[in-house]
Amino acid sequence: MDENKNKPSMPKFNMNWIYMLIIVGLVVAFFTGQGNSKGGISKESTYTEFKRLVMKGYASEVTINNEEKTLKMYVKPQYIREIFKAGTKQTGTHPYLVVEYGSVEQVEAFLNQAVTAKRFNGNYNFENKKGNELITLLINFSPFIFLIVMLYFLSRRMGGGSGGPGGVFNVGKSKARMYEKGDDLGITFKDVAGQAGAKQEVQEIVEFLKNPKKYTDLGGKIPKGALLVGPPGTGKTLLAKAVAGEAGVPFFSMSGSDFVEMFVGVGASRVRDLFRQAKEKSPCIIFIDEIDAVGRARSKNPSMGGNDERENTLNALLTEMDGFGTNSGVIILAATNRVDMLDKALLRAGRFDREIHVDLPDLNERKEIFHVHLKPVKIDKSVDVDLLSRQTPGFSGADIANVCNEAALIAARRDAKSVGKQDFLDAVDRIIGGLEKKTKVMTAQEKRTIALHEAGHATVSWFCEHANPLIKVSIVPRGRALGAAWYLPEERQITTKQEMLDEMCALMGGRAAEELFAGRISTGAMNDLERATKSAFGMIAYAGMSDKLPNICYYNNQEQFQRPYSETTAKVIDDEVLQMVNEQYDRAKRILMEHKEGHNALTEMLIRSEVIFAEDVEKIFGKRPWVSRSQEIMNDDTKESRTVEPVEERPASDDVEISRSEA
After folding, report:
1. How far, in Å, CA of 248 to CA of 647, rounded?
2. In angstroms, what CA-CA distances link 403 with 336, 363, 424, 483, 637?
3. CA-CA distance, 145 to 157, in Å (whole number)?
4. Of the candidates 122, 321, 406, 592, which lies 20 to 30 Å from 539 by C-alpha distance?
């Protein structure tokens, strides 16, 4: 240890050394190359040689300098090779001879004599001042100076734009941002609403960092890494920042894409440099966002699209994660929404010991998230946070933040002093369904077809026990849809076969109504058919809900390009899907025929008012035979105001409805 301390430290490499060497080389080249402003080289000669060449007619111009007692004889192009033994590419277009003379009068008399003898037909002039060598230097070497400047700026860009010394030679350095104290981020667990389970797990990591002795004394080991997994917008990055804020330790943050560059070996070098810095700052946290950019599963066949540079980076990451000491105090947090694509070696215990799921928020968690995002918004007394949280099942934290922001924009657009309940309802409609297009031109026949279709959805879903409760039906074009039925899905943990069949029957209600009451079918049901087909295929091929293929799951996550069943089984699956969808289609037609008059009244009401609510449907069909708990709560709210519009179904193409919480 003492010997290492006494060793003299080697100076760090600096890009400025390269610049200095280039400048010195240019200066030496200038003083040894004898350049000139006319773009040619020079050569010293004697006065006798000068007179001989002039009388032979080789001179094109002569410049006499009185102060330096020298003259320059510029050579005609056709004689350059004879005198300089080189072509114009080497000598330039205006090479000249430098000659010292004794008397300017003698030179002038000689040149006049050469002119009279017609041996010299050029001009000769006098220079009474010394040449400006600095200007000559700048003119001659301006391209080199420009090249140096460009090299300097390129090196700064290639060095990551940090502006630090080293430039391009710093390309292998880690680009992670380090926060010495978590307080610099200004985020704690109080700023993270919901996610109680995920917060409990990461709080243990904070305890490990604050008091590691409490766990190591009992023989426990501090976990090396935790992987935050969940859909986009659920707050994975925010949770990692809160861990840093609570722990009060250095926090290194970077994205998975920051490891990969165009240079070979840069990713692995940055990984090693990141962990070297982390060990110096131990205890600390390393956070890698979107780790799937670098941690994707390695290809079994490198010749089939393998990326050696990315795989080398992943190998370096695997080595470093399992290379430092068990209790070194360096904990790795990573976030991804594509955990199925990560390499198995990255997920094993000893690298990422914990996999923390950050799921979409439930009802109570959405309420907490609304309270967080409503703090900076000026709201009035009409805003009901409970109602808003019930209307947004399947929304992530980012979606809820967008709802609050969109509501504020809508209120500002109408010059309101505060944001009201209707603004939030319009914001939910806007985010799920898109912007209303009331100016879209439709014929009377198209409008009636859309009304028949949407009334079919409403009628069938009203009489299916397990179909989602209806909230609103609209034939106002919104986004890509010409009409939509809006529901309030129940948040189920498991789904039964009968529930899925009822939802499929409600999906087929629109096409069935077109066939029964319009006598023709249209492309408006394309999205309904797609969702029904996917649902039926999932029930048969994955959930084992088929009569001919019971209790069988053909889900294959390993080989994406190979079906885990034979062609015979594929034919059975296709037949079962077709039979299941058509059975629900016939069931939907039976329901519509039983309630033909009510469906017709609902259609006419839609054509007149364009938007109808659940209470309007109730006036036509009576109370729904099966009322869910969420429907009861919703009915209590709608009694207060006719303008309440709980929205869940999002139209995605012409005349469709799609749920945010769709599996």
Report:
1. 42
2. 24, 16, 7, 22, 20
3. 19
4. 592
428: left (phi over 0), alpha (psi -120 to 50) or beta: alpha
Question: pTM of the full predicted structure?
Answer: 0.62
Dist CA 397 CA 235 (whole Å): 7
Cis amide bond preceding 77, omega within 30: no
- Measured in residues, the chain has a length of 663
Q: What are phi and psi of 302, to 5 degrees?
A: -60, -25
Q: What is the pLDDT of residue 643?
A: 36
Q: Which whole-number Å values give the CA distances from 605 to 353, 371, 419, 457, in the listed order? A: 59, 38, 31, 15
Q: How far apart are CA 119 and CA 113, in angstroms?
A: 9
Nearest to 322 by CA among 265, 271, 248, 254: 271
Residue 301: pLDDT band with limits 50, 70, 90: low
Instruction: Compute how many other C-beta atoms are within 10 angstroms of the C-beta atom of residue 333.
Output: 29
User: Please, what's the largest Cα pairwise distance for the chain?
Assistant: 128
Structure tokens at 498: 């009968």
Residue 623 to residue 469: CA distance in whole angstroms: 12
Structure tokens at 155: 């090196």
487: region left, alpha or beta (phi > 0 left; psi from -120 to 50 alpha): beta
Q: What DSSP letter does each residue of 458-497 carry, written as one string?
A: HHHHHT-TTSPPEEEEE-S-BTTBS-EEEE-----SS--H
Residues that are catalytic: 454
DSSP-assigned letters across all residues of 236-266: HHHHHHHHHHHHTS-EEEEEGGGG--SSTTH
pLDDT 10s digits, 121-151: 888 887 765 555 556 666 666 777 777 777 7
How far is Cα 171 from Cα 168, in angstroms, rounded to an integer? 5
What residue type is 14 in one-letter code?
A: N
> Three-class SS of residue 44?
strand
What's the Rg (C-alpha) of the chain?
40
Per-residue tokens: 315 = 């190998």
* Sheet of strand 96-100: strand arrangement: 42-45, 96-100, 70-75, 59-65, 123-127
